[in-house]
Write a structure and sequence with these properties.
Elements lengths: L4 H9 L5 H15 L7 H16 L12 H25 L3 H13 L1 H11 L21 H18 L5 H20 L6 H25 L8 H17 L5 H21 L2 H22 L6 H32 L3 H10 L1
Helix pairs in contact: 3-5, 4-5, 4-6, 5-7, 6-7, 7-8, 8-9, 8-10, 9-10, 10-12, 11-12
Amino acid sequence: MQLNREILKEAEDKGLVSHQQADALWNFLSDRSRDQPSFRFTHILYYFGGLIAIGAMTLFMNLGWEQFGGWGLFFIALAYAVAGLVLTHYFLNLTLPIPAGITATFVVALTPLAVYGLQSALGLWADGKVYRDYHVYIDWRWIYMELATLVTGTIMLWRYRLPFLVMPIAATLWYMSMDLTPFLIGNPHYDTDLYAFVSLWFGLVITLLGFWVDLRTRHDKDYAFWLYIFGVTAFWGGMSMMHSDSELNKFIYLCINLLMIAVGSVLSRRVFAVFGGLGAAGYLGHLAYDVFKDSMFFPLALTIIGLGMIYLGIVWQKHEAVVSRQLRALLPIQIRELIERRQ
């Protein structure tokens, strides 16, 4: 349920609350949500500016920076990190946790550059590898940069308790899963099926970790958001990349996507519903263009199924409160509290 000023005005007009109560409640809710990430213009500026700064030191680094040499890159990264820490404390003192989280994340994102600069200065990248390859190519030797980033990110998260710091940790774990695969199997050659398999299981583990974090922090800030984002993306991407000629496997794929939609609805996590919807649509496209491409009845069957789902939605809406209460009574109290808070 979305509460806005118009709803309070309608309640005021019906005599449910007074004008003073409506204003006081709206001011309270506005102050309470001021520091919660949302799709408002101020927050868009925060994140867009922060991602530009982070991208400048990561994805968009060009070869021109290599002219500074290893020690030059190392000390540049340190100088930027100090500036990021100063800004983090400055924003925290102003009670601006969202900009503080972005600048703290900027510090963590500088860790791979600092480690690369140090390694380059010590002659450990003599084969022509450059820093920008870190975000493009799989190589087990990136592992030192990734481990250092995980350590830095963990320390920063423990110190500042800012949810956006989970983002570089989740991204680095995904990088690490890809880079360790050729090292562990002893095969440096790229294998699409293998990486899809690794991505699927990595995504499942990170998603379950996100659920565990969600339970542990259900009364606190939303630390699980980025774990869900990276976990579900990796899981769904790996699953969708797997090749199969079996219609049974494709139907199982549909069922998993429908389950993701249901989980997203229960946990109020849109990322599950978005990817689940994409997967379900992809399966229906497979049926339309491959299995039943010459059938006159397939569109009719889909229409009937669609109208049936609408009818089920109407029935569910009538009995939602009673059924939801009965179903939630069967769940452990931790999960009940999590669902109630997220909704």
